[in-house]
Each structure stands twice: as structure tokens, then as C-alpha cells.
Amino acid sequence: MRWSGLRYGTQLAYTILSGGLTYTDPIGHYGISLWAKNITGKVHLLSAVPSTNDFTQLYFADLRTFGINLNVKFDAPAE
Q1: Cα(79)–Cα(66) distance, rounded to whole angstroms?
Q2: Is residue 14 within 8 Å of residue 44, measured between CB atoms?
Q3: What does the pLDDT look like over 31-72, one tens digit per residue?
Q4: For the chain: N or C, fewer Cβ within 10 A?
Q5: How many other C-beta atoms can be found within 10 angstroms of the C-beta atom of residue 12?
Q6: In sequence order, what are the residues at sequence separation of 6 or more whose Cβ sits closer than 8 angstroms to the Cβ of residue 44?
């Protein structure tokens, strides 16, 4: 990624692709979610903190992140 020619803490426009799928059982007691963030692995600036002496700390977002969530609902209505 090129940072030369850009002011400290600025970046060009970008697109991030994220998504997820969720299944919940018909009664509503259990669920599972599969998710992914920044699927394409785009390197992008999350934040910039200017400091003294023309120094700026650059913080970058995570690259690809995947996960699974398992859910249990204890107060679901009984049928």
C-alpha cells in the first residue's frame, strides 16, 4: 500500500466486504451464526493519532476475521 503523497492520517476511499449467515431452530432455543469481516483482506487505516515532532501513530484494522457464534436462549417460550 502506498502512503507517500498522502497527508498523515488520510487515505483514499476503499470498500470492505463482510457478511454472515445465521440459523435459528424453529422453536427459538438454539442458534448458530457464521460470520466474516474484511473477507478480501483489504489493508486500511483504522485511526491516526498525531503526536509531536511531525510523528503520527497509524492504527490499521484487522485483515480477514472469521468466527462462529453459538446461541442458547433459556427464556424461549415452551410449546
Answers
A1: 35
A2: yes
A3: 999 999 999 998 888 888 877 777 777 888 889 999 999 999
A4: C
A5: 8
A6: 11, 14, 16, 60, 61
